[in-house]
Amino acid sequence: MITTDDDAAPRLPLAPIAERAAPPATLPAVTAGGLAWRPAERSDAPALLALKNAVAEADREPYRETLAEVTELFDAPWRRLATDSLLGFDAAGDLRAYGYVDSMPGDTRIVRAFLFGAVHPQLRGRGIGRELFAWQVARARQVLAASGKEVPGRLAVFVEDDKPAAALRLYERAGFTPRRYYAELERDLRDGAPLPDVTLDGGLRLVPIADEHDEPARLAHNDAFRDHWGSQPMTREQWRTGRSTFAPEWSFVVVDPDPDVAALLADPATDADSAAALRRGEPFVVGYHVAARYTEDFAVRGYPFGYTEILGVRRAYRGRRIAVALLAAAMRAFAADGMHRAGLDVDTQNPSGAHGLYASLGYVKSHGSHLRTIEL
């Protein structure tokens, strides 16, 4: 059988994931810098926050995190920080480095392990990052091998485009190569440029997001992103985890109150979960805009902004200006709340043409990042 990935040409038959991942029997020791190492615990959240923000400030990143955001790392039920994380403390007991490996329970077409970590700027150049990253890569290989998912595998690390050169060399030496590029876009909400007025057709209704839309929006998301590179289905627990920045007052959905159930059920592209929801007569979300409020970033950037966390339209409903209607509603909500700009992040090779849509609405690039991977 020829195995394919959602972002690649057909591959030759794959060896078992336990072989492809080449997991080491034991993990390499981390001894550089004289730090004391142990797994992360929930009580470490304040120290981890201080370290992450110190790194962000030193690297001039336009982001800062909150205690709630860091605490959420420990709340996800699928994370195994007892085995998949390391924290390094100096002799005074101060946290000076961290690293962890994250894998998603919903991965089906490709199984992924993401690597996150950093060393305090004052301790860089002592080999700590090199040894810690080697530990992460080794642990990531173990995680992939243990998944038992006989699909393509991927080790991945997200990198800001202006990351220090030493970090880039570290990734390159470990075999990680650039795989995908992302652009953070912003749109000035005070420049007087009009926002489009969109009248949706076919009885579609744009409404503020509510609790009843939560699961229907997840199903819409899984359908909308099924043809996006690297995207995998989100389980209920993934969808509901990490909402400390969620801004419901800026979030909207488009609902089809009278979907053509027979046609959708007959369409082979309709996934099983959506089909079951249609049969049950549940609200049918066909487009969604989920917003976030990153208050800690306002001072760093010098202005308040609203952020489009995720935006999507079911594939069967594309071409009906649903995304434009959602973005326009969100930008109006941002502006009404005193935000100066609207922001979002986009894959520069997005297959739905989103980049062109955002440009037509006045969004321009403000920052960039990319994904480096080892493909297995």
Automatic annotation (TrEMBL):
Entry keywords, A to Z: Acyltransferase, Transferase
Q: Does the keyword Acyltransferase apply?
A: yes
| CDD domains documented for this protein | NAT_SF
Q: Name one Pfam family in it.
A: Acetyltransf_7
N-acetyltransferase domain location is 35-196, 204-376
Source organism, top-level taxon: Bacteria
Any idea what this protein is called?
Answer: Acetyltransferase, GNAT
